[in-house]
Amino acid sequence: MFSEERKAKIIDFISNYSRASVQDLSDYLKVSESTIRRDLKELQQSNQIQRTHGGAVSLNNVNFEPTIMAKEIEYVDEKIAIAKKAVEWIEEGDTILLDAGTTTQPIFKELKSFKKLTIVTNSILFLRDFSPAPGIEMIFLGGSLRNETLASVGPFAEQNLGMIRVDKAFVAINGIHVTEGLTTPNLIEARIKKLMIQNAQKVILLSDSSKAGKISFAKVADLKEINTFITDSHLDPELKASMEEMGIEVCLTGHLIT
Q1: DSSP state for residue 256 in the 8-state scheme
Q2: Are 242 and 74 contacting, i.e. CB atoms less than 8 angstroms apart?
Q3: Phi-psi sector, 98: left (phi>0), alpha (psi -120 to 50), beta
Q4: Where are the alpha helices (DSSP H) in the chain?
Q5: H or E element at residue 32
Q6: Bridge-partner residues for 23, per DSSP?
Q7: What is the pTM assigned to this prediction?
Protein backbone atom coordinates (compact mmCIF):
# COMPACT_ATOMS: atom_id res chain seq x y z
CA MET A 1 0.00 0.00 0.00
CA PHE A 2 1.37 3.40 -1.00
CA SER A 3 1.85 6.11 1.62
CA GLU A 4 -0.90 8.40 0.29
CA GLU A 5 -3.39 5.53 0.11
CA ARG A 6 -2.57 4.57 3.68
CA LYS A 7 -3.01 8.16 4.90
CA ALA A 8 -6.39 8.37 3.16
CA LYS A 9 -7.51 5.24 4.99
CA ILE A 10 -6.28 6.72 8.28
CA ILE A 11 -8.34 9.88 7.70
CA ASP A 12 -11.43 7.80 6.83
CA PHE A 13 -11.00 5.65 9.96
CA ILE A 14 -10.64 8.68 12.23
CA SER A 15 -13.55 10.47 10.55
CA ASN A 16 -15.82 7.44 11.07
CA TYR A 17 -14.85 6.82 14.71
CA SER A 18 -13.88 10.41 15.76
CA ARG A 19 -10.62 9.10 17.23
CA ALA A 20 -8.15 6.22 16.93
CA SER A 21 -5.14 4.88 18.78
CA VAL A 22 -1.84 4.09 17.09
CA GLN A 23 -2.45 0.41 17.87
CA ASP A 24 -5.96 0.54 16.32
CA LEU A 25 -4.56 1.95 13.09
CA SER A 26 -1.60 -0.43 13.08
CA ASP A 27 -3.93 -3.43 13.39
CA TYR A 28 -6.35 -2.03 10.81
CA LEU A 29 -3.72 -1.30 8.16
CA LYS A 30 -1.33 -4.15 9.01
CA VAL A 31 1.71 -1.87 9.30
CA SER A 32 4.09 -1.04 12.14
CA GLU A 33 3.21 1.47 14.87
CA SER A 34 6.27 3.54 13.89
CA THR A 35 4.84 3.88 10.37
CA ILE A 36 1.50 5.00 11.80
CA ARG A 37 3.19 7.58 14.05
CA ARG A 38 5.06 8.99 11.06
CA ASP A 39 1.85 9.17 9.03
CA LEU A 40 0.00 10.90 11.89
CA LYS A 41 2.75 13.49 12.24
CA GLU A 42 2.56 14.30 8.52
CA LEU A 43 -1.25 14.42 8.58
CA GLN A 44 -1.20 16.84 11.51
CA GLN A 45 1.35 19.05 9.77
CA SER A 46 -1.07 19.30 6.83
CA ASN A 47 -3.94 20.09 9.25
CA GLN A 48 -5.93 16.94 8.44
CA ILE A 49 -6.05 15.40 11.93
CA GLN A 50 -5.13 16.31 15.51
CA ARG A 51 -2.53 14.11 17.17
CA THR A 52 -3.11 13.02 20.76
CA HIS A 53 -1.12 11.08 23.33
CA GLY A 54 -1.21 7.60 21.78
CA GLY A 55 -3.26 8.35 18.70
CA ALA A 56 -5.29 11.01 16.91
CA VAL A 57 -8.74 12.60 16.72
CA SER A 58 -10.76 14.17 13.96
CA LEU A 59 -10.46 17.92 13.51
CA ASN A 60 -14.26 17.98 13.55
CA ASN A 61 -14.19 16.98 17.21
CA VAL A 62 -14.14 20.58 18.47
CA ASN A 63 -14.77 19.53 22.08
CA PHE A 64 -11.64 17.41 22.30
CA GLU A 65 -9.15 18.51 24.94
CA PRO A 66 -5.98 16.50 25.69
CA THR A 67 -4.93 16.15 29.30
CA ILE A 68 -2.20 18.42 30.62
CA MET A 69 0.04 15.36 30.97
CA ALA A 70 -0.38 14.64 27.26
CA LYS A 71 0.26 18.27 26.31
CA GLU A 72 3.38 18.48 28.47
CA ILE A 73 5.22 15.98 26.25
CA GLU A 74 4.19 17.55 22.93
CA TYR A 75 6.44 20.09 21.13
CA VAL A 76 8.62 20.57 24.21
CA ASP A 77 11.53 22.20 22.36
CA GLU A 78 9.17 24.57 20.53
CA LYS A 79 7.51 25.64 23.78
CA ILE A 80 10.85 26.32 25.46
CA ALA A 81 11.99 28.42 22.47
CA ILE A 82 8.69 30.36 22.53
CA ALA A 83 9.06 31.03 26.27
CA LYS A 84 12.62 32.30 25.88
CA LYS A 85 11.47 34.68 23.16
CA ALA A 86 8.42 35.80 25.17
CA VAL A 87 10.59 36.97 28.07
CA GLU A 88 12.09 39.59 25.76
CA TRP A 89 8.75 41.44 26.01
CA ILE A 90 8.95 41.66 29.82
CA GLU A 91 10.55 44.68 31.50
CA GLU A 92 11.61 45.28 35.09
CA GLY A 93 8.66 46.51 37.15
CA ASP A 94 6.00 45.04 34.84
CA THR A 95 2.78 43.54 36.06
CA ILE A 96 2.27 40.46 33.92
CA LEU A 97 -0.49 37.91 33.62
CA LEU A 98 0.47 34.31 32.83
CA ASP A 99 -2.34 32.15 31.52
CA ALA A 100 -2.38 28.47 32.52
CA GLY A 101 -0.96 26.22 29.82
CA THR A 102 2.01 24.11 28.82
CA THR A 103 3.18 26.83 26.40
CA THR A 104 3.20 29.55 29.06
CA GLN A 105 4.58 27.27 31.79
CA PRO A 106 8.25 27.42 30.60
CA ILE A 107 8.18 31.23 30.96
CA PHE A 108 8.21 30.85 34.73
CA LYS A 109 11.73 29.44 34.72
CA GLU A 110 12.92 32.42 32.66
CA LEU A 111 11.82 35.02 35.23
CA LYS A 112 14.50 34.34 37.84
CA SER A 113 16.77 37.10 36.52
CA PHE A 114 14.21 39.84 37.21
CA LYS A 115 14.50 42.04 40.31
CA LYS A 116 10.96 43.49 40.35
CA LEU A 117 7.83 41.93 38.88
CA THR A 118 4.20 41.35 39.77
CA ILE A 119 2.97 38.03 38.39
CA VAL A 120 -0.75 37.25 38.19
CA THR A 121 -1.75 33.72 37.21
CA ASN A 122 -4.52 31.15 37.28
CA SER A 123 -2.09 28.22 36.97
CA ILE A 124 -1.69 25.93 39.97
CA LEU A 125 1.62 24.78 38.44
CA PHE A 126 3.04 28.31 38.61
CA LEU A 127 1.91 28.55 42.22
CA ARG A 128 3.57 25.22 43.00
CA ASP A 129 6.87 26.24 41.42
CA PHE A 130 7.00 29.78 42.85
CA SER A 131 9.94 30.52 45.15
CA PRO A 132 9.53 33.77 47.14
CA ALA A 133 12.09 36.40 46.17
CA PRO A 134 12.54 40.08 47.08
CA GLY A 135 10.76 42.31 44.59
CA ILE A 136 8.76 39.47 43.00
CA GLU A 137 5.08 39.32 43.95
CA MET A 138 2.81 36.42 43.00
CA ILE A 139 -0.97 36.87 42.85
CA PHE A 140 -3.06 33.72 42.37
CA LEU A 141 -6.55 34.31 41.01
CA GLY A 142 -8.19 31.47 42.93
CA GLY A 143 -11.52 29.94 41.97
CA SER A 144 -12.50 26.45 40.83
CA LEU A 145 -9.71 24.18 39.63
CA ARG A 146 -10.10 22.42 36.27
CA ASN A 147 -8.44 19.01 36.37
CA GLU A 148 -7.84 18.99 32.61
CA THR A 149 -5.63 22.10 32.61
CA LEU A 150 -4.88 22.70 36.31
CA ALA A 151 -6.24 26.23 35.80
CA SER A 152 -8.43 28.17 38.20
CA VAL A 153 -11.66 29.31 36.54
CA GLY A 154 -15.22 30.27 37.35
CA PRO A 155 -16.94 33.20 39.12
CA PHE A 156 -14.37 33.71 41.89
CA ALA A 157 -11.45 33.78 39.45
CA GLU A 158 -13.38 36.09 37.10
CA GLN A 159 -14.28 38.47 39.95
CA ASN A 160 -10.65 38.70 41.07
CA LEU A 161 -9.42 39.18 37.52
CA GLY A 162 -11.98 41.94 36.99
CA MET A 163 -10.39 43.94 39.84
CA ILE A 164 -7.00 44.32 38.17
CA ARG A 165 -5.30 45.64 35.05
CA VAL A 166 -1.93 44.34 33.85
CA ASP A 167 0.79 45.62 31.55
CA LYS A 168 1.08 42.41 29.56
CA ALA A 169 -0.91 39.19 29.32
CA PHE A 170 0.68 36.02 27.97
CA VAL A 171 -2.16 33.85 26.73
CA ALA A 172 -2.18 30.22 25.54
CA ILE A 173 -4.79 28.87 23.14
CA ASN A 174 -6.04 25.68 21.44
CA GLY A 175 -7.21 27.04 18.09
CA ILE A 176 -6.09 29.94 15.88
CA HIS A 177 -8.12 30.72 12.76
CA VAL A 178 -8.31 33.79 10.51
CA THR A 179 -12.11 34.09 10.54
CA GLU A 180 -13.05 32.17 13.71
CA GLY A 181 -10.34 33.77 15.85
CA LEU A 182 -9.05 32.23 19.08
CA THR A 183 -10.90 29.22 20.45
CA THR A 184 -10.60 26.66 23.25
CA PRO A 185 -12.58 23.49 24.07
CA ASN A 186 -14.14 24.69 27.34
CA LEU A 187 -16.65 27.54 27.78
CA ILE A 188 -15.59 28.40 31.33
CA GLU A 189 -11.93 28.53 30.40
CA ALA A 190 -12.78 30.62 27.32
CA ARG A 191 -14.39 33.19 29.63
CA ILE A 192 -11.29 33.58 31.82
CA LYS A 193 -9.02 33.89 28.76
CA LYS A 194 -11.32 36.54 27.31
CA LEU A 195 -11.11 38.59 30.51
CA MET A 196 -7.32 38.27 30.50
CA ILE A 197 -7.24 39.75 27.01
CA GLN A 198 -9.63 42.55 27.93
CA ASN A 199 -7.71 43.54 31.07
CA ALA A 200 -4.22 43.82 29.57
CA GLN A 201 -2.59 46.79 27.88
CA LYS A 202 -0.65 44.42 25.63
CA VAL A 203 -1.72 40.87 24.72
CA ILE A 204 0.90 38.35 23.66
CA LEU A 205 -0.37 35.07 22.27
CA LEU A 206 1.89 32.04 22.71
CA SER A 207 1.35 28.86 20.72
CA ASP A 208 3.22 26.31 18.69
CA SER A 209 2.16 26.32 15.04
CA SER A 210 0.19 23.05 15.33
CA LYS A 211 -2.72 25.15 16.69
CA ALA A 212 -2.84 27.27 13.51
CA GLY A 213 -5.93 26.65 11.40
CA LYS A 214 -7.66 24.75 14.24
CA ILE A 215 -11.11 25.62 15.58
CA SER A 216 -12.27 24.54 19.05
CA PHE A 217 -15.69 24.72 20.67
CA ALA A 218 -15.65 28.02 22.58
CA LYS A 219 -14.77 31.43 21.14
CA VAL A 220 -12.28 33.49 23.15
CA ALA A 221 -11.55 36.53 20.99
CA ASP A 222 -11.00 37.79 17.47
CA LEU A 223 -7.44 37.75 16.19
CA LYS A 224 -7.41 41.55 16.04
CA GLU A 225 -7.65 41.66 19.85
CA ILE A 226 -4.07 40.44 20.26
CA ASN A 227 -0.94 42.55 19.75
CA THR A 228 1.81 39.97 19.32
CA PHE A 229 1.92 36.31 18.32
CA ILE A 230 5.01 34.24 19.21
CA THR A 231 5.29 30.83 17.55
CA ASP A 232 7.72 28.53 15.74
CA SER A 233 8.89 28.82 12.14
CA HIS A 234 6.49 26.19 10.83
CA LEU A 235 3.64 28.71 10.86
CA ASP A 236 1.59 28.79 7.65
CA PRO A 237 2.84 31.82 5.63
CA GLU A 238 -0.73 32.74 4.63
CA LEU A 239 -1.85 32.93 8.26
CA LYS A 240 1.25 34.96 9.12
CA ALA A 241 0.50 37.41 6.30
CA SER A 242 -3.17 37.69 7.32
CA MET A 243 -2.25 38.42 10.93
CA GLU A 244 0.31 41.03 9.92
CA GLU A 245 -2.32 42.71 7.73
CA MET A 246 -4.44 43.04 10.90
CA GLY A 247 -1.54 44.86 12.58
CA ILE A 248 -0.42 41.89 14.68
CA GLU A 249 3.29 41.53 15.31
CA VAL A 250 4.24 37.93 14.40
CA CYS A 251 7.50 36.64 15.88
CA LEU A 252 8.94 33.28 14.78
CA THR A 253 11.41 31.57 17.10
CA GLY A 254 13.31 29.84 14.33
CA HIS A 255 12.58 26.43 15.90
CA LEU A 256 10.91 24.08 13.45
CA ILE A 257 8.47 21.37 14.54
CA THR A 258 9.92 17.98 13.60
Answers
A1: P
A2: no
A3: beta
A4: 3-17, 22-29, 33-45, 68-72, 76-86, 124-129, 155-162, 187-198, 237-245
A5: none
A6: none
A7: 0.76
How confident is the model over 203-225, as pLDDT tens digits?
A: 999 999 888 888 888 999 999 99
Spans of the chain below 50 pLDDT: 255-258
C-alpha span between 169 and 72 (Å, rounded): 21
Evaluate whether 206 touches 167 at the Cβ level (below 8 Å): no
Strands 249-252 and 228-231: parallel
- The DSSP 8-state label assigned to residue 255 in this structure reads P
**Residues 6 or more apart from 28 whose CB is under 8 A from it?**
9, 13
Residue 105: count of CB within 10 angstroms of its CB:
23
- Per the CB < 8 A criterion, the answer to whether 89 and 99 are in contact is no
Chain CA centroid to CA 78, Å: 11
